[in-house]
Amino acid sequence: MKLLTIDTSTTTCSVALTDDTRLLAEFLFDCDKILSRQLLKNIDGVLKGAGLGVDLLDGIAVAVGPGSFTGLRVGAATVKGLALASNKPVVGFSSLAMLALNLPWAAYQVCPMLDARKKEVYTALYRCGELPAVLSNDCVMPPADFLDGITEKTIFVGSGALKYRDLITAKLGEMAVFAPAHCHQPRASAGALLAQYAFTHGEVVPASALNPVYIRPSEAEMAKMVRSK
Q1: Would you say 41 and 47 are in contact if contact means Cβ atoms under 8 Å apart?
Q2: Domain 2-95+186-217: which topology?
Q3: Is the pLDDT of residue 214 over 70?
Q4: What is the spatial distance between Cα 22 and Cα 15, in angstroms, rounded to a whole number?
Q5: Would strands 59-65 and 2-7 be described as parallel, antiparallel, or unpaired?
Q6: Is the pLDDT of residue 124 over 90?
Q7: Domain 103-183 has CATH 3.30.420.40
Q8: For residue 122, which of 188, 66, 193, 78 has the smallest C-alpha distance?
């Protein structure tokens, strides 16, 4: 199964092209204010590098969140456009599960953490084998509150883990283990494993129904709620 997988959930975005479990091409790049243009350019580069066109894909996948509101919107909109134009099936997957998969077959439970700003993190707990098993659902909260519920040795990974490393160490001591430096960036190639599972288990969604999962309201939505009180 040839899949194009996209991740725009953080400031490091990536595009991967896979054929079953074989990685054909992957490109990581820093996002900026013209993400949509960069993303399309890099999708085109990955496909051309592998000698494939969108018409030869079996499906398209994207990380739907949580993460950067702008990034997630661009990623979802891009995949919708590609899928509708090519009539390809689509799936979405958790950006935190994708990040956890940077540590397959880890000896301890894995806690992916993304900086959510406002002194909060997007986080969850997984037991990672070939695929991640959910121990605690994706959520957003102050890191100290989430750490209060951790009672066993845990591997921390992601931008939130790096930002709050001192707090994590202070609260958990030797129960806290930190992933190697190269593991902290989400990778679309890891998301491709989640996507392939979703496709083979019938979790395809209509392109029109593919939407980001923000977990918390956007600034505009919060302002609207305040005005309505």
Answers
A1: no
A2: Nucleotidyltransferase; domain 5 (3.30.420)
A3: yes
A4: 14
A5: parallel
A6: yes
A7: yes
A8: 66
